[in-house]
Input
Amino acid sequence: MSKLHALFGGTFDPIHYGHLRPVEALAGQIGLKKVTLLPNNVPPHRPQPQASAAQRVAMLQCAIADRPLFDIDTRELARSTPSWTVATLEALRAERGAQQPLGFIIGQDSLLTLHKWHRWQDLLSLCHLLVCKRPGYATQLDTPALQQWLVAHQAQDPQQLHHAPAGYIWLADTPLFDISATEIRQRRHAGQPCTDLLPDAVIAYIDRAGLYRD
Ligand SMILES: Nc1ncnc2c1ncn2[C@@H]1O[C@H](COP(=O)(O)OP(=O)(O)OP(=O)(O)O)[C@@H](O)[C@H]1O
Ligand SMILES: O=C(O)c1ccc[n+]([C@@H]2O[C@H](COP(=O)([O-])O)[C@@H](O)[C@H]2O)c1
Output
């Protein structure tokens, strides 16, 4: 039985198949039993979401109703300050103890900007980074020094993620989904359909709540 607990942070405005499907594949590949979705309140480094925190959580609930792999942790919504991942991970580490393997899931685009995150060099002392592929983004980091840092921490075997509490980067070979929440919001504003980009239950919620309309 795996002890590795994975968290997947995001703005999720809205959640879509580009979030769900790569992570489902990752879970199968490395043996994750549970993935905790961690919606942020005040996302660092980007415009604020169009949907409220409560609406984004409601969309997560719609999306995972028939996906037992996932649950939701709303702790970042309780803070009105920016949702620094390092602070959330410190709180989780304090709760779960020094030996609990923790993974933080990101897409390739997030890996490329990781060196701009708050106290980014502390992240690997708190968790592993589990990276899903995303089409349209470079596979090499910006500078030779960053690329060296990546290679130095890269795990070669998923068992390393289960046996160490933190410290590795897993570059997962996940399927590519050319989907973004930005595109979904734009399509909704333009009155275009989004079928196949996100679960029907989330589309039904967006319709009911009148989200992403001008
Ligand atoms: N299509 C995708 N493939 C792989 N990873 C993704 C994809 N979309 C989002 N992610 C990852 O999911 C996490 C949360 O992303 P986020 O909620 O910002 O979605 P987004 O589609 O990038 O949103 P937006 O278009 O509003 O910026 C990030 O780590 C991001 O890299
Ligand atoms: O801690 C930071 O500085 C930081 C900077 C950018 C993003 N993050 C986190 O990374 C996750 C994905 O972010 P986003 O903006 O792509 O939804 C989400 O949990 C954010 O809170 C964290």
Summary: The domain at 5-209 is CATH 3.40.50.620 (Rossmann fold). The first strand starts at residue 5 and ends at 10.
